[in-house]
């Protein structure tokens, strides 16, 4: 009995909130049915671009290349060793890059060398 009373009370209190609202109309059927189609998108390829040789290039290829193309890395602004170290730590700590601790200095050193060459 108490449950029915609570439902009736809830409906009575909610009725003023619904007053004046017309029922929503369902959207009309589209003139033509939706159909999937194949679309080809051509993106620029940079498979021929490689990281320049240098100490740490193997660590960069093994740890960074899955997400960062050489073209992207080679166009980064000049950063200090400390700034590159912070970037590598961010990849590990924030983005969960599976970089082993013993690879961090090799990667940082390589990236610093790229910056110094600019």
From TrEMBL:
Residues 1-19 form the signal peptide. Keywords: Signal. It comes from the Bacteria. GO terms for molecular function: electron transfer activity; heme binding. InterPro entries: Cyt_c-like_dom_sf (IPR036909). SUPFAM superfamilies: Cytochrome c. This is Cytochrome c5. It comes from Novosphingobium sediminicola. The lineage of its organism: Bacteria, Pseudomonadati, Pseudomonadota, Alphaproteobacteria, Sphingomonadales.
């Amino acid at each position: 009995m108490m449950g029915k009373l609570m439902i009736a009370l809830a409906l009575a209190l909610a009725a003023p909130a619904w007053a004046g609202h017309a029922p929503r109309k369902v959207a009309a059927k589209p003139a033509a049915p939706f159909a999937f189609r194949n679309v080809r998108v051509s993106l620029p390829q940079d498979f021929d671009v490689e990281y320049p040789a240098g100490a740490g290039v193997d660590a960069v290829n093994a740890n960074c290349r899955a997400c960062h193309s050489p073209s992207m890395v080679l166009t980064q602004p000049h950063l200090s060793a400390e700034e590159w170290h912070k970037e590598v730590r961010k990849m590990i700590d924030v983005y969960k890059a599976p970089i082993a601790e013993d690879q961090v200095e090799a990667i940082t050193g390589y990236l610093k060398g790229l910056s110094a060459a600019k």
